Fold C-C motif chemokine.
Amino acid sequence: MALKAAAVLLIAATLWCYSEGNNDGAIDCCLSTSNAPIPYKILKSYRDQSVEEGCTIPAIVFITSNQMALCAPPKAKWVKKLKSKLDRKSKKKSKKPSKKPSKKGSRKSQ
């Protein structure tokens, strides 16, 4: 059983490496979008997809905490709200707490 699992993993890894090496510069594009709202709590980030970058449709690509890409229509109201929430979340994370100067005993010259 373990040998069979190892063989399957080896084949999968080989195919994955082959597909990664032979994408001919193709980018990963959404081919369609879903109007079903996505729960905020599963989202990690998002990116914009545009026709200018070679994709056939504009879309917002939401990335989940499990690294799944979910495609949404960029003009939908719920999509704009999710983008705003994620922007606020990333701004909070980028702000680093200020470090106060240490008030340890200073030495006076004698």
